[in-house]
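Quick illustration, no need to memorize.
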Amino acid sequence: MTGGRGLSKASDWPVPGLISHATGPSPTGWFGTDVWESEDAFRRFGEKLAPLLREVGIPETEPKTYQAFKVVTG
C-alpha cells in the first residue's frame, strides 16, 4: 500500500485525510479504529485497501462506521 515505506505517521497513508489510526489484538482477532477528516477520505482509503485485502484472501466485510462529534489531538 505504501511501496514498502511503512505507516508510522498520518502523511504515510496512501490517501490524505487520516487523523488517527490504532490497532491491537481482540478476543476475536485483530481490531483497528481510524478517525478520518471526512467520509469521502475514508471511502478513498477503502478503494485502495479493498483490492489488497482480496489479494491476500481476507473476506470482504462492511466496516462499522460512527460519526465523531469531538476529536481531541495533542
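The beta strands are 18-26, 29-36.
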